[in-house]
Prior knowledge:
- The complex is a heterodimer of chains A (79) and B (412).
- By secondary structure, chain A is mainly α.
- Helices cover 48% and strands 0% of the residues of chain A.
- Residues 1-30 and 56-85 of chain B have low confidence and may be disordered.
Amino acid sequence: MNRDIIKKSCYALLLMSMLGLSGCALGTAVQPWEKETLARPEMTFEGDKLDNAFTEHIYSSKEGASGGAGVGGGGCGCN
Amino acid sequence: MGSISTTTSRVLGAAFATAALALPSLQFANAEAPPERGVVSFKYLHYQDSQEIAGQTVSNTNVINTVSGASSVAASGTSGSGGSQDRIGVDAYSVSALFPVAGKWSIGTTYTSDSVSGASPTYHSSGLTTMKDLRRAVDVQLTRYFSRGSVSFGTSYSKETDYISSGFSVQGSLLTENKNTTLTLGGSFNNDSINPVNQPAVDESKKVTSGLIGVTRVLTPQDIVQLNFGYSKGSGYYSDPYKLNDNRPRERNAVTALARWNHHFDDNGTDGTVHLSYRYYSDTFGIRANTLEAEYVQPLYKGWSVTPLLRLYTQSEADYYVSVGSAEKANPTKPTPPPVNAVYYSEDQRLSAYGSVTVGLKVSKQINKDWLADVKYEQYEQRAKWSWYGNGDKGLTPFKASSIQVGLSRQF
């Protein structure tokens, strides 16, 4: 089982480096004056916090898996 | 320019597809600068689940009641004759506020009240027992911003009749000089105490420590990606005291890998944004899960915007999950006994192998520069035969849920 976890983690690391490399391969760093679009709320990963909290809470009480995006938040007796 | 962006999306597309990866969730992302304005938000949630009763022969007089004598657990075995209308329903609301303080700090807090009532199975999809509880939770976060990063401290507290959870967390982020790459490190500790109302002698606890490392990277003026790796280590009481035949290991460690990609369509004129994410999850219960999410935000005129979403999820069963046996299959009022000599066992359908699909739609309206309103509807279904892991328990019946959220927020 542990071996499986390690194997999967390796795949994930591989992906991480691939994404990183694909970023580097673009060569040109995005300049501050090009970040107007990136500043739009829908381009952030934070999103609608209350929506995310409700949604995450529902899934963690109905499914085996949970977490992944951040740390913190309260536990509950619902799972 | 056109060819550059085409190449870019091809590279990204290839990276994404090759790895076939990426999924969802919440909180902290790349809040590197203090908020310019304060914001107060309110959200209401109504949730209702439903499930066919296992077998066609069961009527509401056959319901087994294993939970009894509880002040907050109404010990009556009244399941609805249709098996649907009396299942778990939730009415919840949250209020949150986030304010900048002295230019370099922000403080945020959220209060949630969560009222749950209805019937849920005591084993597999059967043995419905009703419950009712109220959960209240509060969390506070304090963040200090620096020129190239931030540090956040958080604390949370949640209370139900039979369950109290308290926790704290620390998260730091560091940006590169051009602010295109962010490294995030976080850790949290939760200490829960559990006193089941049906088993007053049980005075249990659970402690969970977790850590997270993540990289967020701006790839182009229209693309941003994030990769997070999480680990959590938990020990204590993981069994469900309201289920029959339930004895789970006292340790649960989990790893997660989450990849997210946001892309904005500038060039073709839709002005829309797509969010893609994939999460891989694996724990020492033996559960492996894959979650794939896609949503598309389409701004319309006059501040309106619509966001359709699709979520696909699949998990394998826990090592100690006990499937519906042949006797129970013939008569769902006869629970399957755990295997002889089994140390750990559970007949909780959430630990079985299944797949699920969520479709949803969110509509929001920016009323003016201060006010934002939104409504979101989601429909969810879980089926054993949708598991990618192939060993779904055929004795379980499909599980469905729907939810609606209504939100309002105002900036100051």
